[in-house]
Structures
1.
Amino acid sequence: MKRQYSIYLIILIFSLIIHLQAYGGDETAQSIIMRCDSVRNPDKPFQMNDRLTEYKDGLPQNEVILAVYSKIDEESGQFKNLARYIEPPRDRGKTVLMNGTTMWFYDPASKTSVRLSAQQRLLGQASVGDVVTVNLAKDYSAKIVGNAEMLNDADHLQRKCWHIDLSPINDSAVYGRVEYWVEKETYRPVKGKFYSDSGRLLKIAYYHKYVDQLGAMRPSEIIIIDAVNSKLVTTMNTYAHKSKEIPDSWYQRDFLPRLNIE
Amino acid sequence: MKLRTVQLFFIVFIFSLIVSNIVYGQEDENSDLLLIPKAIEDKVSPDKNSALSGKAYIEDAFTGWLNRSTQTVPVPIELPNWQNRTSLDIDYNLQLNQWLKISLSDRLNGYVGNMIPFPSNESAGNDFREAFLTFEPFPMTYLEAGRINLKNGTALGYNPSDFFKTQSSVNIASIDPSAQKENRLGTVMIEDQQIWDNGSLTLAFAPKLQNETQLQTTSISGFNPLFGQTNYTNRFLASLSYDIANMNPKALIFIDNIGAHIGLSLSKVISSSVIAYAEWAGVTEADITNRALTKNTQTLPIGTMIQSNTSAAFQNDLAIGASWTSSSKLTINLEYHYHQSGLNEGDFNRWISLGSSNSTMAEVYWFIRQYAAQQQEPLMQHEFFALFDYPDVIQSKLNLDAVAFISPYDGSILAQESVSYFISRKMTLGVFISESLGSLLSVYGSLPSIMSMALRVVWYI
């Protein structure tokens, strides 16, 4: 009887250890997200182009091209971003500034700037928060919920991933909750699921086509699936990356009319 | 007994492990891959960049009006029933070298309509909006000279601190203030702007180039650049913005033939979906009636004796509002406008009474309304403004918008609803329906047009 009790106890302790190992490990969730951020984002100021193609029922419907200028804010550690429309013709020259919770939209037709809330999305299925460069570790608290999940990437190749749950910790966070799958060893993001404040699944993203951009292998394509209407899919292709010295004075309302595309 | 408890605990623990694995790990995440279209997998990555510094388009706008058969105060001119405008619109800038940039914004118009003889000198016109040179001798220091649209203000329906707005509007079909901002004339000026990390300083001087032209009673100005409207007196503006407490305040001083105007605007993020903003300006000036009557004394009926407050006093102008955006992208702006020098309820009723009893007074009444519109200031002391913006009602195809000016005195409304349909990347179709609602004695119900409808096609070149 006593022996049976001891066996149960050993199994129990062993299971507990396995369980804790599975969801914890040596790496903390926050450090995984930080390393994942550094895979997605260069650590120096840069400019790039971003082509968004919207698909409906599998067919391309609309295309937007943006020039994006990104730089880390030394105080917050988060990126400051300027995004100017290059295409389509009707939107050419419109510019969005995103600096923490400060967002402005400049329209060259009216030559005025309007202050935006984080909720105001301007790019169809992709939000401003998707297009611009964001360090998730600065806006979200991370928790590992799966330590060795096998997940297929957009090329249907199996990846061994951390499954991480992200909760917002400040007003800059665009989403109410994020689930993120990060490939072990490479720290490359494989997949993300983005939720509203009310917990509704808004979109699913696959990080795809890793190429050398500014000295590291980074995803050059993000495939965004609308979770509400899955017939709507948007791809974001980033290209023409260049390191660039960007003055802090660019990231304010009064500079928006002055931005020249180079 | 003790053993059974341990057994039970063990079973519960194993069960919880299974459940947690189902929740966190075993869901078939790979099924989402089936949602990716085949076209994406076959797509070739882009490798080109097309950076253009401006746009040009051809626009055709057909407008029809349904006018009131009876009016309490009749309009002294014949009103059009329909008009068609075809325009070539260009807005380009060219970087000449590291320091110099040249900018041009212009619109060439052709008109036909039941009130416009064809061909005649009213059949064509040009809106010369902007042409200026920008010199950047040092980084973030800009010197500019030419005709420039210098705009200020954070509100959408009325901008008290947008001091160069007066007499700058040109003929457009829309009552939407943003459309009026798009098409207004610039002012010939020299401007210096310094931009720092958290703020900027702007100095501008607009010289007098012509004597003040008479207030336009027709909307078509031909090929006249209208310097007599935009540069009729020497004007000076200094504005300073510096971000404090994330409120982006901007302070302004503007000096013209009326006196020294002061202005202030600021905005604040309230939550992830709400923005609040306010804009104020003040100057010592006469009320709107007196300013209108002293403006164009030659064109006013001889012998007009109007009792108005001719003494100047400090007058406040305020626009305060907030925007709210839903999770479905609908944005609603609500604003309150206070225009101290505007008409109060007693003034307005007196004018309605005078205008309805005497054709000369009717002419004066409409002249004051025309003056307020030209100055881009409210006629009345108090008004509400609402804007609804619903983009992507059909993803990347259809936008819906509506604006409304609401009179708190009588509940009358001047509203416009618009639909924009993006036929292709280069072509947009728009429908605008405007209406004035209220009794014939009300602020907006007394307007001559019950409703109008404009059909607009834009083709980007």
2.
Amino acid sequence: MIHFLLKGGLVGMILLSSKLAMCQDDWKKLFPNAEAVYTNLSNDIIIKQEDDKWIATSNLSEDLLYLTGNSVNMMSRGRIYHSSFNELQKWDAYVQPPSGKKVKVSNAATTSSRQDYIFYDDTKSTSFDYAGASVGATRHMNYLLKHNDVHLLTPHYFERYFPVGESKVTITFPADIKLKYIIKGLNAEKVVFSETKKRDKTTYTFTIRNVENIDAYEDAPDNAYYSTHLIYFIEQIKENGSWKNFLSNPADLYKHNYSFIRNINKEISQELKTITDSIVKNISSPEEKAKKIYKWVQSNIKYVAFEDGMEGFIPRDASLVCNRKYGDCKDMTSILTAMLNYANVPAYFTWIGTRSIPYDYTEVPLPISDNHMICAIRSGDSFLFLDGTDDGCIYGFPPYSIQGKEAMIAINENEFKIVRVPVTAKQKNTYTDSTFIRLQNQELIGQVRIRMTGYHASRMQTILNFKNEKEEEEYLKKQFARGSNKIRFSNWKTELNPDHSEVLIMADFNLPDYARNLDSEIFLNLNLFKWYEHREIDFPKRKAPIEFDFLETSTFTTIVKIPEGYKLSHLPKGEIFKNDTWGFSMKYTADTSSVYLTQAFDTDQLLLKPGQFEPWNKVLEHLFPHYKHTVAFSKN
Amino acid sequence: MKKIFFILFTLLSIHSFAQKGYNKFQWKEKPVLHNIDKKYQDAAAVFIADDRIIEYGFDKNELYIYRTMHRIIHINNDKGIESFNKIYLPFDEGLEMLDVKARTILPGGKIIELNKNNIKDLKDEDGEYKIFALEGLTKGCEVEFYFTLKKYASFFGREVMTPGVPVLKSHFELITPDHLVFETKSYNNLPVSKDTVYGEKRYLVINDENISETEEEPYSMFQANLKRVEYKLCYNKARNEKERLFTWNELAKKAYDIYSNITDKEQKKVRDLLEDIKLKPNSTAAEKIMSIESYLKKNFITRDDIPSEDADDMAKVIKNKIASEKAIIKLYTSLYKAADINYQIVLCGNRTNFEVDRTFENWNNTNNFLLYFPATKKFLAPTEIEYRYPWIPPTWANTNGLFCVGTTIGNFTTAVAEVKTIPLENYEHSFLNMDMNLKLDKNDALLIDVKQSYGGYAAPNYRAPFVFLPEDEQDKVLKEMIKFGTNSENILSHSYENKDLDQAEPYKPFVINASVRSNNLIERAGEKIIIKIGEVIGEQTQMYNAKARTTNIDLAYPHALVRTIKVTIPEGYMVKNLADLTFNELYKEKEITTLGFVCSYEQKGNILNITIKEDYRNATYPLQQFETFKKVINAAADFNKVVLILDKAG
């Protein structure tokens, strides 16, 4: 929902004087592998009163020195993000060639820069071409943003895609403001802080020098988890001689947030009442009512997000959402709470940050700590969380994207609770894959049976719900392939539990050219898939953590019938290996009729930190040799 | 080509005869839900009606196009809801959105009409849209909308009639003032249009029904095979009933004027630029062609979406080094002229979607631009940064090109059109070869020396990442490429040959050499060693008989693959199943190989040499040869599963 954040790490600037002139070769020495260097990044923030209203401005500037022809091509277009909360007031950009006059940018255009999942909002990007760029030239950009709502000051990121020479932020504020700051990220300790005072104005200065870029990875969490950044916010404002809280603690944030829901759902329509009545007819248990209402919202209200300006914060009335049959997370929460409350199940608007935001309200009591809204209901002494945007979600399971995060529950105007959403135990998210095979001539013939629970099941249901029979078969064929691409499946059967908590998928298959016959022997590798092949972590180079969607337990079993007229002549040895990070068990057994391979994996990590990369790889070192072992049968 | 049209339509004086505006589309006052045939009930949604009405009409004596699209969509399931509750109406080149109406018809009969205030304007990097969300959607409901977009008149157009859902009735209507005679051409089994004149208007109408959802087939040009109609203005009876308009000859002349003429002032700048390029004295025509191309592609950034006039202004372009496509083409032609290199401008389409049709002059199908050099009989693609003479995007070739052949009449230089095939380079020059040397190492690893060679049309795509990506990204690409065939990311050493896009000898391949240690190609069964030899050619497509094939086989370019694999058999071992290496799927037409997968081997001492030749010598094969084609494709997939079983000798 709340989209006021500008896209990650856009903020930066120049320092014009007091700088030893460094030439291209000096930068190359400092950052030998760099294709380009941000020689200067600066952001001069001023917090001030304008027409009786507190606002802030950021004067950002950056200089990027091109060191390779490649960087000239890659970085030929500049871009400034802005929105109605962060208004672009002026900008200037040019290329300074190694010698000669500046070349102005050309072909500027302003377009929408909304995220894919949002249908409409007011985020924009202004982009332009750096004309006349070449190796040794510097591209310069500076621009002024006006922040119209000082609740929404966005963090400053010090690092970039290329190394940074100097990155500096100043924040200047008057004596009637109390400002707090927090520095986070891998290079947080390298940021140097200083404070100066001029008359009644204080200036905080934060500087970092000569930092390498941090490589991005697809499986890494949001860069807020590791990039070095400065969070700053107004704690208190002096009004008429006395200090008043602004955003100093979660209670202040709650007060601010509550203003968005104060006037929502004062009345609900007859239509919504009728629908609710028909859903909970003859049901007395609050839990059953909640289940039914949640299910109705999941299946009938589709996710469409209009988040223009304040639409990003204020939920729409439940009756309107009911008519439209669509809404964003706030609208879904609005209709859920309205229906539940009408059915006498107390339900509450709840703000939460998804796992893409690494902050707790208690540490960072700011609107930037949340980006989502859900509905909370009581369940004994604790709360259950219902997310209307996730149509595959199992009742009682929080969506996996909010596990472990703090929720801010709106009990009433004066009361709120902060409750941490539990992390769903790995035993609840199981994946059990069994393959039964027999040999017929050169071919393997068999069945697969895959049982999923928890998040595995709900995710699979969401995927299958959107496929027709033919598409489903195509998908299953790819998803559950094993052995080689010669496998042919038939007779797919899927059993989906209506509450999304369990999925069972079965099929028959033929797999030619997988078993190897030679003279009087048959060789068969029971590792029909090698899940972790090539999953070593690039250690020690990688600095960014790895994020997993949820904790899980997975088991893969292959059972092969000993072919008639043959006996088992070689059975590989298994292994159990575990360390503090994770582990596996690989077990071969045999009886008179069959041979069994069972592989099991589990993790206790939602976030794998760099310190755990080496032990992670250690497990793989133990695992990989097992992938090569083959069972052998020989003729009696 | 858009630029040409803008110039054109002001030149063409078409006077109005009092017709005004356009026929407003009317939907049914009281819509009713439709019953859907069983066979369509599994589709997410079905188009009950898909109407396109293109009307040429006058407004204040100016001619405009009024394009109306009307659809009634029956929604069957959640996927249908999610696909059609958000509507994006393209507004590119639009002047005004005249009528937008949309409504939802619910199973109970309730109708929810779209509130106009909820239509938003959206401009993103892909273009401009009017967007809105439709309210109240449930399974079994119907969504109906129409809009009329007013645009500047272009005298060419096309409508692709097969979208991704089944269509019960599709309707196309081209309405023009009677004196403007348009023609249509239907492609891919769309019925031909019927022509009627009614009052002062001329109607070209196509009706089609029960069009099932089109599925994408492998090795096929999906877009090109969709049902579509193209249309163009052919005669203006108000001027001359006999003179055919917008011929290929006329386009050749326009293109020549636009791309070959520069001012004297510009000419001077061009000559200065040619000085900077420093052509070597006595260089051959080909060398000159390549030097100029290389200079422009290295030093200028070309973009097709540049709106500003700066990018068309030659003096500014030479200074700023950022050019529109039009400007860069002018820069090429004027540099070649200044360097005394004879060239022809060639306009072409693309085999993947729309091509130049000799008999139907739709200028919109000439979106791509080539230069042809009669001296060397080769082509160059000025706007394509990763291609170098004589290599051009292969789907621009093996199709018609409009060659603008220069001719001089007195003092006047112009061009005439020749529509002919742009030939592809011979198949032998395009290859993806691999040479591999495999030796067993300790711990059941294989040491593999691999040489991957990419020649001809195959080379640009493989070279590009090693030219345009930052170094760490290049490493990732290298790993992926080496993993294909070695199943290992453990690269001990590597080197490149002919890595630059600019090569003095353009037929030489891009080569990657690497030494790799692979732990994933050997299996053990007791004493026996299993070498997964088939995996060294990388995973290969396996084709099944899922559904009867409907389209020809189309490849981007003809090519050949040669792989040689040398295996050192460890001392004391012998290969027990050499015969498994023999493959012979070879197809000839008139004694000449067109297609094949052949594998042979030879063992000398403890060295086993395997040679695989895989050929696709044509760019296209007719539908009747599909089974043969599939056999060759599947032979490669079969080889990929072959293992060598090594046992103690004796």
